[in-house]
Write a structure and sequence with these properties.
By secondary structure, the protein is an alpha+beta fold. It has helices at 35-45, 57-66, 112-124, 145-151; strands at 2-10, 25-30, 71-77, 80-90, 94-102, 132-138, 155-163. It has a 7-stranded mixed beta sheet, with helices on both faces. Strand 5, helix 3 (112-124) and strand 6 (132-138) form a beta-alpha-beta unit.
């Protein structure tokens, strides 16, 4: 099976096209050793075949160890965990949104646009100087993922076909 991976970026915080605010939806820091991190990444990724949905404990330890600067943020809706955002800072003021998504029970409720708005604002505020925010999405992700990224102001800069399986 082949999937299409699309890389998108913003090079200025003024490029963000925010979605309408959703009352009750918020983004807050999450400790990297909180068990909720693994649960959320697995839950968000399961419908899309993300590796996080099937990692062993040993693979999780290696994943965390490989990126000591990675930060984790909890999306909540009316106080209930609804999704997760992970950021990887890179040299030159770049921030990669490594993971972003909602748990399946929160998909289709009109939260995605504002959740992404919160995630992008958080990326721009992650360091004193951020020059670029980027991420990649895949054709196996939610079908509204790429359109949401584009509506928020991200521009594609690379696509590639990758074998999967």
């Amino acid at each position: 099976m082949t999937e299409i991976v699309t890389y998108v970026e913003m090079t200025g915080r003024d490029e963000l096209e925010p979605a309408a605010a959703v009352p009750g939806l918020s983004l807050e820091p999450l400790e990297r050793d909180a068990p909720l991190v693994v649960d959320l990444l697995a839950g968000v990724g399961a419908p899309h075949g993300w590796k996080s949905a099937r990692r062993t404990e040993e693979e999780w330890r290696a994943w965390f160890a490989a990126a000591p600067d990675r930060t984790f943020w909890l999306l909540t809706f009316e106080g209930t965990p609804a999704g997760i955002v992970t950021y990887d800072p890179h040299p030159g003021g770049e921030v990669e949104i490594k993971s972003f998504g909602l748990l399946p029970e929160f998909v289709g409720k009109g939260l995605g646009g504002f959740a992404l708005t919160l995630a992008v604002r958080g990326a721009w505020e992650l360091a004193p100087v951020v020059s670029r925010v980027w991420l990649h999405t895949s054709s196996s992700d939610h079908p509204r993922a790429l359109p949401n990224y584009r509506r928020r102001g991200f521009r594609p800069y690379r696509t590639e076909e990758v074998g999967r399986g």
